[in-house]
Amino acid sequence: MKIVSIAVYQADLPLVDGDYCWADGKSVSVYDSTVVAVTTDTGLTGYGEVVPLGPNYLASYADGVRAGIKELGPKLIGQDPRDLSVLNAYMDYHLKGHPYVKSGLDMACWDILGKVSGLPVNILLGGTSTHKGSTCTVPS
Questions:
Q1: pTM
Q2: Are the C-beta atoms of residues 6 and 38 closer than 8 Å to each other?
Q3: Alpha helices in the chain (DSSP H)
Q4: Which of 2, 13, 45, 62 could cross-link 31 (Cys pair, CB 3.0–4.6 Å)?
Q5: For the chain, what is the radius of gyration of the CA atoms?
Q6: What is the pLDDT of residues 3-46, one digit of tens each?
Q7: What residues are paired with 73 via a beta bridge?
Q8: How many other CB atoms are there within 10 angstroms of residue 112's CB atom?
Q9: SS (H, E, C) 90-102
Q10: Residue 129: predicted pLDDT
């Protein structure tokens, strides 16, 4: 199985409760979403999404995601989307840093792996746990 195409879509997602504001008067009025579709030579398509919170909140921003995929995407054509360790190393080799760019591509490849294996991605990632974990009390 090989990647034959990567499509990128932009969508503005409205905020239900109005603008999201933080320090120094910075805010966003919509989430700028990037949806990534990775298609294979078998016709399977996997989907991923990246939705950074504006260009001045974190060191990731939506236009940067799309620019990074434009740079990295062509290098992934012909790669096996199921071989995730190899694919992630390949992405790191061709684009240093910028994990937010790679995350949508990685999600799309996990989606493909889930479709091929017939398993939901949460099972592939280790399963669903209802265990709440233990608590720890720190004495004062």
A1: 0.86
A2: yes
A3: 62-76, 84-94, 99-117, 121-124
A4: 13
A5: 18
A6: 999 999 999 999 899 888 888 888 888 889 999 999 999 999 99
A7: none
A8: 26
A9: HHHHHCCCCHHHH
A10: 76
Q: Tell me the DSSP string of 107-128.
A: HHHHHHHHHHHT--HHHHTT--
- Tell me the pLDDT tens digit for each residue of 108-134: 999 999 999 999 999 999 888 777 766
Kindly tell me if the per-residue pLDDT of 102 is higher than 90.
yes
Distances (CA, A) of 103 to 3, 107, 110, 117: 16, 6, 10, 21
- Using CA atoms, how far apart are residues 6 and 132, in angstroms rounded to an integer? 38
Between the CA of residue 15 and those of 29, 62, 73, 102, what are the distances in Å? 6, 16, 30, 25
